[in-house]
Design a protein that fits this description.
Order of helices and strands: EEEEEEEEEEEEEEEEE
Structural class: mainly beta
Mean pLDDT: 85
Radius of gyration: 19 Å
Largest sheet: 4 strands, antiparallel
Distance between the termini: 23 Å
Number of strands: 17
Strand content: over 45%
Length: 196
């Protein structure tokens, strides 16, 4: 079992350190922490991780992917994502990462980029305006780019749930969008999510 956590730095408790913990579990319910790998940089948000085979672990943390050897913890590869990761999924051959700014990047098991998709559309949101002394003054409606919230690799397709409540399907063999499953209730009144 692999778990992503943020732990406090023993030398400086004000700093948060992202770590991947690999646990050894047996059928009787016994467990022990087998290995802890320091991933990412101080104060970066860990987003997702997955085993790729028996000996490699891929981690999405901050604005990059890291591929690690499970046994030694050694980094095998990294890939810059170009934006903060906020959603993640993987299968044995591909990794998909939802990025801040309304994009999704798909990489192979060696972290080479296979595709990058943009989520079209906007989502209603509210910008809160405060006075200089922190008193709430005004809620200003605005539309913001739709953000990916959840991803699922479905064989040759990628399903992406967005803040606008829609599910978008992308064909990974042709690197193009193929369908949008629109929310039958219309646009959400406020930043919503779609789950796949």
């Amino acid at each position: 079992l692999a778990v992503l956590r943020t732990v406090r730095d023993a030398a400086d408790p004000a700093r948060a350190l992202p770590v991947a913990q690999i646990w050894d579990l047996d059928d009787a319910g016994a467990h022990r922490l087998w290995r802890e790998l320091r991933v990412g940089d101080v104060d970066q948000r860990p987003v997702g991780l997955a085993f790729l085979g028996d000996d490699r672990l891929v981690v999405a943390v901050g604005d990059r992917l890291e591929l690690r050897d499970v046994h030694t913890g050694a980094p095998l590869a990294t890939a810059a994502l170009g934006a903060q990761a906020q959603a993640f999924t993987a299968d044995a051959q591909r990794i998909a990462v939802g990025l801040l700014g309304g994009h999704v990047a798909v990489h192979d098991a060696r972290l080479a980029r296979l595709a990058r998709f943009e989520l079209a559309g906007t989502t209603p949101s509210v910008r809160r305006i405060y006075t200089h002394d922190g008193v709430h003054h005004l809620d200003e409606p605005q539309d913001v780019p739709t953000q990916p919230t959840v991803l699922a690799l479905l064989g040759p397709r990628l399903a992406v749930g967005g803040t606008d409540g829609d599910i978008r399907l992308f064909d990974l063999t042709k690197n193009r969008p193929v369908a949008t499953l629109a929310n039958p209730r219309g646009r959400p009144d406020f930043y919503g999510t779609a789950r796949v």
